[in-house]
Design brief:
The complex is a heterotrimer of chains A (432), B (147) and C (478). Chain B is of the alpha+beta class and 147 residues long. Chain B has one helix spanning 3-44; strands spanning 48-54, 65-68, 71-75, 82-83, 94-99, 102-107, 114-116, 119-120, 124-127, 132-135, 138-144. Chain B is built from one helix and eleven strands.
Chain lengths: 432, 147, 478
C-alpha cells in the first residue's frame, strides 16, 4: 500500500467539528463541577485531538483512499465518551480511558497495515473459529479469569489490565461466518429439504448452525453473559440472512432463541431475574434491589425533557456503574431528547456508511465482512439503548465508543479500521 | 454561583448541542453526497459494459451502456445489478463475473435461457470482448477494456 | 437464483433503521410523555437531593409550632426531625434512601423553594442552580386538638379526624398504631426500621383516617335520613316499628332486627336516639335504591376526597344496590358499604354547614423564607349535597341523640354546649365490632366536626363517643 500521500479534506473538515465537540463538552462538564479550567483539565481533550489528527495524517500519508466519514464519526462518538467519563466516572478512570483510546488508535493502525491482503482472512476460517472459542473460554480458567458482578467474562493480568475477550470474539466471529457462508451460501440458500415452510439445510451444513446455537446457550449458562449471547446469535442470524437472503432462517433462529431463553429462565435463576426485573422494576420488592439501577435510569430519563437538564447539571450519580452500561441515560438526562436523538442518528449514519461500504465491496466475502461488522455495531447499540429504555431486558453490553471500557473501545476501532480497509480496496478495484 | 456564570455555562451547553447537530448534519450530507456520487461512479468506472444493440419498445435504448461490476447479477428483478426490462427475461436470469482475470457468464436457471454468440448457454462460458449476449428480446455486446 | 448480497444488505439496513426508530420512540416516551410522572415519583432522588446538602422547608402548625424541620447534627449532616409522633402518617417522612411519603411528598417541591406560586423561582432553581431559602408549609393542624385526639384514642387501634366545617381544614388526624418517623430517616437505623415498619402486620404506615375502610354502621343513618327526607319522608311522622321486620316474604330468612327489640311508634328524632334499624330500613326503602345511592355519592362516598394525601374512595356497594334486602341492609349502615373516617367526618361537616360539602385540606398556606404567605390553600366547597332545611332537621335529631337520657352517644356530651352526634357499631370481619362516632359542635354554628373509629371496640360506639366528645371539646375551645 505504498502510495503517494493523498489529501483527505472531507475527513479533516469533520475532525474540526470533533475537536469543537470534545472541547465544548469538557468546558461544560468541568465548568459545572466548579473546578478551575486548569491546564490539566484541558490536557485530555487536547490529547484526544492529537490522537485524532495522528490517525488522520497516518491515513493521509499512507495514501489511503478509503471512506472519509467513518473515522470522524467514530472519533466523534469516542469524544463524547471521554466527556462522559469525565462527567460520570471516578477521577482515576479518565486517564485510563485516554490510555485505552491511545491503544485503540494503535490497534487501528495495526489493523490498517496487517494483513497485507484481506482475502488471507478468508482462508484460515477454522483457525479463526478455534481461536474464537479459545478466547471465549479464557475467563473460565482459574488464575487469569475474573468474576465481576456475577459474570465470569473478564481476563486480568494484574490490577491494571483487564479486558473482555468476548469483544474481540465478535470480530473473529464475523470473519469466520463471512468465510464459511461465502463458501457455502449456494447450498444454504437453496436447500433440497424443507419442514413445512422452513427450509432445512443439508445435515453437514446444519451442524455448524446448531453448534452455534448450543455455543450461545453455553456462554450464557457458563459465564452468565446474556449480552454476549444475544450479540453473537444476532450476528449469526444477520450474516446468515445476508448470505442467503432467506428470511425464514432468521425467523426460525429468533424463535429458537426465544424458546431457549424461556427454558433458561425456568431453569436458571439469574436469567429469570433479568426478565422479572425488566417487566416490573418499580414493584416494591425490586425497586431497591435488582430493579434499582433501571429505576434510577428511568428517573434520569424522566428528568431529561426536551433540552435536558444541561451538561453537568443532572443527577446521574444515583445510577450504579453509570459510566458503562448506562451512559446513554446519563447523556440523555443532560442533553435532553433532542441530544439523544442526535446521538442515535450519529450511530445510524455510522451504520449506514458501513452498510454502503458493504454494498460496494468487490467480493462476496468482503461484502459479508463489512455487512456483519456494521450489523454488530448497530445491534449492540440497539440492545443497550433499548435495555436502558426498558424496551427489552437489560443486558451488560457496552454502548460502542461511548461506554467506559478498554476492550470495547479497542475492538470498535479495529472494526472501523477493517471497514475502512474494505472501502479502500473497493476504491482500488474500481479504479479512479 | 452567580447568575452570569450559570448563564455562560448554559451558553456552552447549548453550543455543545448545536455542534452535535451540525456535526450530524454534515455527516449526513457527506453520506448523501457519496451515495449520489457512487451511482455515477459505478456507471463511469465500471469494469466492463454490456452495450444494448437490439431491443424492443419498452426496453433499454439502443446504445445504452449497462455497467458491470466484478460480480453482476442480470435479470428482470429490480434487485439485480443489471436490470433487463423484458417479460421474456427471468427475475434472476444470468450472472456475469470477473474471476482470476477472466470474464465469465453463466445462466442462473432462467426459463428462456441465455444466448451467447447465437448458441444457447449450457453452463458457464468465458466472455470475450465483442461477444454478443441475448437475454429475452434484448441483445447486448460485451465490452471489456481490461483484458 | 440466489439474491445478490447487495439486496440483502439493503433489506437488513431497512430493518435496522426501523429498529432505531422504534427505540427513539421508546426513549421519547420516558423523556417526554412519562416525564411528569417520573419526576413526581416519591422515590425520585432529585426532589430529595437537597435533603442532605441544604435545610429543607419546615412544617408548622396553625399556631406556628414546628412539626417537622431539618436539623444540623454535630457532624455537619442534615436530618429531618419530626416533633409529633401522632402525625406520623400525615406528615410521614422524607428519606434520601426510601423516598418521601405523606405531606413530605405532596409538598416536596414547595419545601425546596420550588413552589408553583413562584414559577420564576422554580425556573431559577432548575436551570441556574439558585437555591432560595425554603420557607415552610403551614398546616391547619391545631396542636391542642391533636394532643387531645391522641390522648383520647389512647393507643387503641383506629383513627380520629377533625375537620372545620366552615373551610374543610383538617384540625387533627390521628391513626393508631403509628411509628416514629425519626428512626426512619436516621441512616444508622433506617434499614432495620424500614423492614420492621413494613413487616408489621398491624400496618403502622397506613393512615387509617384517610385510607382505612370500614362499614359505617349506624353513622350512615345520617345519609339515609337525608335521602329519605328529600324524597318526601316526613321526619315528624310516627312510624310503626315491630321487631323483627320483613317487608315481604320474598326476603326469605332476612329480617331487620331492632337493637332494642322495639315495638312502638318512632319519629326520626327518637329513631336517632335509639338507633332504630327498622325505622331507617323503612326510610331507606321509601327513598329507594337509586336515591340512596345518589345521596351517598352526594356526600362523597364512592369518590376519593380531594385532599393532599391519597384518600380512599370507599363504596356504596360492590356493584349496584339491586335488591330490597340490600337496600334495607345499607340503610342502617351495613350491606356492602365501606367508608373512611375522613368521609364520615365530611358527612358530619356537611350537615353542620347547612348541606354544603367542604373540600378537605391539611395545609392552610405555603410561606416563604420570611414567613409571608406565598399562597393560601383555600379550596372552595365541593358542592351542595342537601338542602339547608334537611340539614337542620337532621342536626336537631343528632343533638337529641347526644342529649337525650340514656342516649348511646351520651359520652360525647360537653357541658354548656350543644353537641350533635351519632354512634355506630359496625360488624367487623372478626372479633368485636368496630365503634364509630361522628358529630359536630357547637350544633348551631359548628366550628369542628369529628369522626372516630375504634377497631374491635368492646362496647362499640359507646367507646367511641367519649373520644369524640373530648376532641370536640378541645376543638371548640381552641
Amino acid at each position: 500500500m505504498r502510495a503517494r500521500p493523498v489529501f483527505r479534506g472531507t475527513e479533516l473538515g469533520h475532525l474540526v467539528w470533533v475537536a469543537l465537540l470534545v472541547g465544548l463538552g469538557f468546558v461544560a462538564v468541568v465548568g459545572s463541577e466548579r473546578e478551575q479550567l486548569t491546564a490539566a483539565a484541558l490536557a485530555v481533550p487536547v490529547a484526544f485531538v492529537g490522537i485524532a489528527l495522528a490517525l488522520h495524517f497516518f491515513l493521509a500519508f499512507r495514501g489511503f483512499r478509503g471512506d472519509e466519514l467513518l473515522l470522524p464519526l467514530a472519533l466523534g462518538l469516542a469524544a463524547i465518551g471521554l466527556v462522559l467519563v469525565q462527567r460520570l466516572a471516578p477521577a482515576h478512570l479518565l486517564p485510563q480511558q485516554l490510555t485505552w483510546a491511545i491503544i485503540g488508535g494503535g490497534a487501528f493502525v495495526a489493523a490498517i497495515l496487517v494483513p497485507r491482503d484481506l482475502s488471507v482472512l478468508s482462508r484460515y476460517k477454522y483457525t479463526w473459529a478455534l481461536a474464537g472459542i479459545a478466547l471465549l473460554a479464557l475467563p473460565v480458567l482459574p488464575g487469569i479469569g475474573r468474576e465481576i458482578n456475577g459474570a465470569r467474562i473478564w481476563v486480568g493480568f494484574g490490577e491494571l489490565l483487564s479486558f473482555q475477550p468476548a469483544e474481540a470474539v465478535k470480530v473473529i466471529l464475523v470473519i469466520f461466518f463471512a468465510a464459511y457462508l461465502e463458501e457455502h451460501r449456494e447450498l444454504l440458500a437453496r436447500p433440497p429439504r424443507r419442514i413445512g415452510p422452513v427450509p432445512i439445510p443439508p445435515p453437514p451444513y446444519l451442524i455448524p448452525i446448531l453448534l452455534m446455537w448450543a455455543l450461545a446457550m453455553g456462554v450464557m449458562i457458563l459465564q452468565k453473559d446474556l449480552g454476549a449471547t444475544l450479540i453473537f446469535f444476532g450476528i449469526f442470524l444477520a450474516m446468515l440472512y445476508l448470505a442467503t437472503g432467506r428470511a425464514a432462517y432468521s425467523v426460525a433462529g429468533i424463535l429458537m432463541l426465544i424458546a431457549g431463553g424461556w427454558a433458561a429462565s425456568r431453569v436458571f435463576e439469574h436469567v429469570n431475574a433479568r426478565i422479572v426485573t425488566w417487566l416490573a422494576p418499580f414493584s416494591d420488592e425490586l425497586r431497591f434491589g435488582a430493579g434499582y439501577q433501571l429505576v434510577q435510569g428511568l428517573f434520569a430519563l424522566g428528568n431529561a425533557g426536551l433540552l435536558g437538564a444541561g451538561l453537568g447539571n443532572g443527577m446521574p450519580e444515583r445510577i450504579p456503574v453509570v459510566w458503562s452500561d448506562f451512559v446513554f441515560t446519563a447523556f440523555t438526562e443532560e442533553v435532553g431528547f433532542v441530544g439523544a436523538l442526535a446521538l442515535l442518528a450519529l450511530y445510524l449514519v455510522l451504520v449506514f456508511r458501513g452498510m454502503a461500504i458493504a454494498m460496494r465491496a468487490p467480493t462476496p466475502f468482503l461484502q459479508l465482512v463489512a455487512g456483519g461488522l456494521s450489523f454488530a455495531l448497530a445491534f449492540q447499540t440497539l440492545v443497550i439503548v433499548a435495555g436502558n429504555a426498558k424496551l427489552i431486558p437489560l443486558t451488560g453490553v457496552t454502548l460502542p465508543f461511548l461506554s467506559y471500557g478498554g476492550s470495547s473501545l479497542v475492538t470498535n476501532f479495529v472494526i472501523v479500521a477493517l471497514l475502512l480497509r474494505i472501502s479502500d480496496v473497493t476504491m482500488r478495484v474500481r479504479g479512479g | 454561583m452567580e447568575v452570569p456564570y450559570q448563564v455562560a455555562l448554559w451558553g456552552v451547553r447549548l453550543a455543545f448541542l448545536l455542534v452535535l447537530y451540525l456535526f450530524l448534519i454534515r455527516a449526513f450530507a457527506s453520506l448523501w453526497r457519496s451515495l449520489r456520487v457512487e451511482t455515477e461512479l459505478a456507471a463511469r468506472n465500471a469494469l466492463a459494459y454490456l452495450i444494448v444493440q437490439r431491443t424492443h419498445a419498452t426496453g433499454p435504448h439502443v446504445g445504452e451502456r449497462l455497467p458491470l461490476r466484478a460480480v453482476s447479477a442480470v435479470g428482470r428483478d429490480a434487485a439485480n445489478d443489471v436490470v433487463i426490462n423484458d417479460e421474456a427475461a427471468s427475475a434472476r436470469h444470468a450472472l456475469i463475473e470477473l474471476t482470476e482475470g477472466s470474464w465469465w457468464i453463466q445462466d442462473e436457471g432462467s426459463t428462456n435461457g441465455t444466448v451467447l454468440n447465437g448458441s444457447r448457454l449450457a453452463r458457464r462460458e468465458r466472455l470475450h470482448d465483442g461477444d454478443v449476449v441475448e437475454i429475452g428480446r434484448i441483445g447486448m455486446r460485451f465490452e471489456a477494456f481490461r483484458a | 437464483m440466489i439474491r445478490p448480497i447487495g439486496a440483502n444488505i439493503r433489506a437488513l439496513t431497512l430493518v435496522i433503521a426501523i429498529a432505531f426508530l422504534a427505540t427513539s420512540v421508546g426513549v421519547s416516551y420516558w423523556t417526554l410523555v412519562a416525564s411528569a410522572d417520573l419526576s413526581s415519583d416519591a422515590f425520585n432522588p432529585r426532589l430529595l437531593a437537597t435533603l442532605l446538602d441544604r435545610p429543607r422547608g419546615r412544617f408548622i402548625a396553625a399556631d406556628g409550632t414546628e412539626l417537622a424541620s431539618s436539623v444540623r447534627l454535630a457532624d455537619g449532616s442534615l436530618r429531618r426531625r419530626y416533633a409529633d409522633r401522632s402525625l406520623a402518617q400525615v406528615i410521614a417522612y422524607a428519606s434520601s434512601k426510601y423516598g418521601a411519603a405523606g405531606l413530605e411528598a405532596a409538598y416536596a417541591e414547595s419545601l425546596i423553594g420550588r413552589d408553583v406560586a413562584d414559577p420564576i423561582g422554580q425556573w431559577r432553581a432548575r436551570y441556574l442552580r439558585e437555591h432560595p431559602d425554603p420557607g415552610s408549609v403551614q398546616l391547619a393542624i391545631v396542636p391542642s386538638v391533636q394532643r387531645a385526639a391522641a390522648a383520647a384514642l389512647a393507643g387503641r387501634r383506629g383513627a380520629v379526624i377533625v375537620v372545620d366545617p366552615r373551610s374543610g381544614a383538617i384540625l387533627a388526624s390521628v391513626s393508631e398504631p403509628n411509628y416514629d418517623a425519626n428512626i426512619l430517616v436516621d441512616p444508622a437505623q433506617q434499614d432495620l426500621a424500614w423492614q420492621q415498619v413494613n413487616g408489621n402486620t398491624e400496618r403502622p404506615l397506613l393512615d387509617r383516617a384517610t385510607q382505612g375502610l370500614y362499614p359505617p354502621g349506624s353513622t350512615f343513618k345520617l345519609v339515609t335520613a337525608a335521602a329519605a327526607i328529600e324524597s318526601g319522608w316526613d321526619p315528624r311522622a310516627k312510624v310503626r316499628v315491630d321487631d323483627p321486620y320483613q317487608a315481604d316474604p320474598s326476603w326469605g330468612s332476612y329480617h331487620v332486627r331492632s337493637p332494642s327489640q322495639a315495638h312502638g311508634d318512632f319519629d326520626m328524632s327518637l329513631a336517632f336516639q335509639r338507633s332504630e334499624n327498622i325505622y331507617f330500613a323503612k326510610a331507606g326503602l321509601f327513598a329507594g335504591a337509586q336515591r340512596l345511592t345518589e345521596y351517598a355519592s352526594r356526600f362523597g362516598i364512592g369518590a376519593a376526597p380531594r385532599c393532599e394525601l391519597a384518600a380512599s374512595r370507599g363504596q356504596i356497594a360492590t356493584g349496584t344496590i339491586d335488591r330490597p334486602t340490600l337496600v334495607a341492609d345499607t340503610s342502617f349502615g351495613q350491606g356492602e358499604l365501606l367508608v373512611s373516617p375522613l368521609q364520615m367526618a365530611l358527612v358530619a361537616a356537611t350537615i353542620a354547614r347547612g348541606g354544603s360539602l367542604p373540600t378537605p385540606h391539611y395545609a392552610s398556606a405555603v410561606l416563604d423564607a420570611r414567613g409571608d404567605p406565598l399562597r393560601l390553600v383555600e379550596p372552595g366547597a365541593a358542592g351542595q349535597a342537601i338542602r339547608p332545611d334537611t340539614a337542620a332537621t337532621i342536626a336537631a335529631a343528632l343533638v337529641a341523640a347526644v342529649e337525650a337520657p340514656g342516649a348511646f352517644a351520651s359520652g360525647a356530651r360537653i357541658p354548656g354546649v350543644h353537641v350533635a352526634g351519632k354512634t355506630g357499631t359496625a360488624e367487623a370481619p372478626s372479633g368485636a365490632p368496630h365503634g364509630w362516632f361522628v358529630g359536630f359542635a357547637p350544633a348551631e354554628n359548628a366550628t369542628a366536626a369529628v369522626a372516630v373509629i375504634i377497631e374491635n371496640a368492646a362496647r362499640g360506639g359507646e367507646d367511641a363517643a367519649p373520644v369524640g366528645g373530648a376532641v370536640l371539646r378541645a376543638a371548640i375551645g381552641r
